[in-house]
Design goal:
Bound molecules: zinc ion
Strand order of the largest sheet: 8-6-10-9
Number of strands: 11
Number of helices: 6
Largest sheet: 4 strands, mixed
Strand content: 25-35%
Number of domains: 2
Structural class: alpha+beta
Amino acid sequence: MVLRSPSAADGGLLAVFLGLHPGEDGERTAYLGVVEAPTDGDRDAGWQTLRAAGALLPDLDASLAATLLALANWHRSHERCSRCGAPSEPTSAGWVRRCTRDGSQHFPRTDPSVIMSVIDDDGRLLLGRGVTWPANQFSVLAGFVEPGESLEAAVAREVLEESGVVVTEVSYLGSQPWPFPSSLMLGFTARAVTTELTHDPTEMAEVRWVTRAEYAALLRSGRSGCRAASRSPGESSNGGSVPILRWRRGTRSSRAGARRPRRAEP
Ligand SMILES: [Zn+2]
């Protein structure tokens, strides 16, 4: 993402209105996102994905980038009407697509995902490593919410599927945009009722319990580059880091959960 003034060449590109933001002088600046195709030259110039760079951005830039990425992902994958298959075109400043044949309107979707700190009665935190992740990169567990289940049920199901641990007292901590490609990440904490670990080797390479001291050592050694330990797109109160920050400070809270079937992680 590059912040710049509009140019005449933008007329032929997909553009979306991202909002108005007041400056220090009280004047509001309008932000529009213009989607350009990446080139190999961009990669050579040290570009990074938002997922990698999000933690380093100021709140305004992170919010602009998250909104633009989510909308760009949606436009790219919804070029045709889901009712009749005719091409659709952007309208309402990029926040709606309208079918060119039947006129139906289609809106951007946001998929809820959950991420959770699971803590046992000895104060240990549950971490896992997905099969496709680099060696020694761990995170708290996460997954998509399935149709027909509550957020609390999604937390309990994902933990059971990925680690074999049964949880209770599921409680909400915070949220953040997660446009990879179109999620809202909701952070929770939960208390482990069981501690025995059994994981599905097709999804998780490893799951383990860590004490606060072991977690701090992992961070110091640079071996836990977990996505959940980083501050990424959107707000400072985010779903990803809140569960771990609360656990490191030694706080925890309550509510109930249930269980269901499956899907890959976000
Ligand atoms: Zn249509």
